[in-house]
Write a structure and sequence with these properties.
Largest sheet: 5 strands, parallel
Strand content: 15-25%
Helix content: 25-40%
Number of strands: 18
Strand order of the largest sheet: 9-12-15-1-16
Radius of gyration: 28 Å
Amino acid sequence: MTEKKLVTTWADVEGMSSTEDILIPSNPLDRVLGQEEAIALAKIAAKQRRHLLLVGPPGTGKSMIARAISMQLPKVKTEIRVADNPENPEKPFLEVLTEEEVNRENTALSGASGKLLDPDKAPRHVAEKLGYVCKSCGQMSLPNEVNCPHCGKTKIDMGGMQNNPFGDLLGGMFQAMPVSIGKERVNTTRTLADGTEETVVFERAGDKIRMLDQKALEKRRQVDKNSKQKVLVKLDREPFVLATGASETELLGDVRHDPYGGHQGLGTPAYERVIPGSIHEAHEGVLFVDEISHLGELQRFILTAMQDKEFPITGRNPQSAGASVKVDHVPCDFILVAACNIQDLENILSPLRSRIIGGGYEVLVDVAMADNDANRAKYAQFVAQEITMDGHIPHATIGAVEAVVNEGRSRAKKDKQLNSLTLRLRELGGLIRAAGDLAVMEDAPLITEDHIKRALKRARPAEDQIREIYGSYTKGLSKDLSESQKQKSSNYYMENEHLGDTMFN
């Protein structure tokens, strides 16, 4: 296998046989094309804990910059819990434990924590189900790596679709979704020397696998029974949280309803029904809010959380039994990275923008970068990144990369950017995947320039297809409306045909 290397000039690219030879940078910020100003501010935001508002069209790398910031942050150091308050159950106690306190507690409960194993010491099928072993090449890696660092293929379990001819096509759709690689816990059985069977549980434990035999499981059950507390935000967590703002509960937390009202002996205790929001899960990390202007009035809650660095969790439904439960002073010290389109700036609350500017930066992301030797090499790196992240399509020839560069020039011109390459890279990523799908269906070893050209027709938006058929989008719309009216008239005549007979009889 040819040794992979970073590409900095187009001459580096021309000397390669395919994108498989291109080394992808280890620093996530180095994988973002263009956006020099945004990247510089992202590095400051990560080091100095500054907020960031990224303004620009979709598909220009805003979410990628936000995730890259989270990967620059130090490891989180606290765990947030709620505990039973016997004097006033509807006001659960809040506990914030440091990493040292959590480790001491884990040591004290070592009898219930089982035995830690290196992934290669656990049974192969167990390590595979937990996400430590790549099903394609059998090499070890951490479960949080979507693509195997050894063979570059996806570790997402596609189930029955793996042997389906359309599995690769559907797999690309799931790639864009947040997916858990493997299982958190695997239950097995083993036969002891005396011939009896016992349950053995394997769990993830960072870069190790925890094995719990029958004695450890029994002790853990006893510890759980005696412990009247719940972990809200665990110590070992992802420092990047994507908040959609689909509901107040998702963003701010909630207390689940209990038809028994938490009545002792009947209902579920109040502390067990407390649910953290995205703002709490992002504590010590990054809270990324895409299209923040669409949150409406929920923006003011984010503003309060940013100001106070804490936000209470209470029941959101006044008709629920959870409405009387409240946990005060829940920490939520996060870096806000928000994104919006240019036309939506006016819909962001002025106090929120003031808070971002007062403790961070606003940056307009670029839609194009100069068409020069170095940036064409970055395009080649981008093609290699997209293929590796997808995990279901082959690498591309250098001719195919040149075709992508040409398309980047063409799309930059549509944005009135001359001598430039577009940075609307999500659309180009779709083109690469469409070309890769063609290559897969033809059993081609590499994506070629021909695949790119044919994919350009398949990857067009619906508006372009309408213009080709009808001449213009408005004509297509008019024809669609006309056909719809004809159908409605026909249906009305058929349904009311008897009215004419009635009138003349």
